[in-house]
């Protein structure tokens, strides 16, 4: 398994292109809209929340959205170069940035009502995911919430060919170095971490790229149907809201 130093070196090199390659492409814009809608709807169910901890903030994609919701954000990341980009993204919104390892956060037990981490857990196998979740749980207050997303195993299997084609065209690789989770496994994982899942919602899906070629609005409308029910199987991500 890759070390913290490996990730730090990798994302230092990725810092200047990460945001544009993930969120400014056709599919990136579709994903961004659907992802933020899901995060917003989940946060709405647990308001009021004052201060939020974001773990692995990257270039500030989610950080900026959280401040748009009126939340006070402390954002952490292992890589200073990524946080520099996040500071550019958030500007003068008052975000406090802290360099930190997700396995050892420099905050006391129960310090935050809401802890969020996005586009991060797919980097790790299940046992490492469990360690991260336990650390997120540690800094979450009793009755507080953890909001985390994971890459969806069922979509990867059902849409194996579209997934392969997308990665070949977009990234010139056969597949990303990604770990996938399913709904049942996530329910068990969160329970082991001392957290109770309240909702698991599906987000986006690479196949929406084809609809996006016709109309981004059409793709987003179709993608909204992937949140729950049978269509959740086709979603790229599973976003989990859990209570401590």
Q: For the record, what CATH class applies?
A: Alpha Beta
Question: Which percent range describes the beta-strand content?
Answer: 15-25%
Radius of gyration (Å): 17 Å
Q: Give the helix level as a range of percent.
A: 40-55%
Number of helices: 11
- CATH H-level name... which superfamily? Vaccinia Virus protein VP39
Order of helices and strands: HHHEHEHEEHEHHEHEHHE
Largest sheet: 8 strands, mixed
Structural class: alpha/beta
End-to-end CA span = 29 Å
What name does the CATH topology carry? Rossmann fold
Q: In the residues, how many domains can be counted?
A: 1
Tell how many strands the DSSP assignment holds: 8
Give the mean pLDDT.
90
What's the architecture, going by CATH?
A: 3-Layer(aba) Sandwich
Morphology call: globular
Low-confidence stretches: none
Describe this structure in words.
This protein is of the alpha/beta class and about 240 residues long. Helix content is about 45%, strand content about 20%. It is built from eleven helices and eight strands. Strands 1, 2, 3, 4, 5, 6, 7 and 8 form an eight-stranded mixed sheet that branches. β1, α4 (about 60-70) and β2 form a beta-alpha-beta unit. α10 packs antiparallel against α11 (about 215-225). The longest helix is centred in the first third of the chain and has 19 residues, at about 25-45. It is globular, with a radius of gyration of 17 Å. The mean pLDDT is about 90.
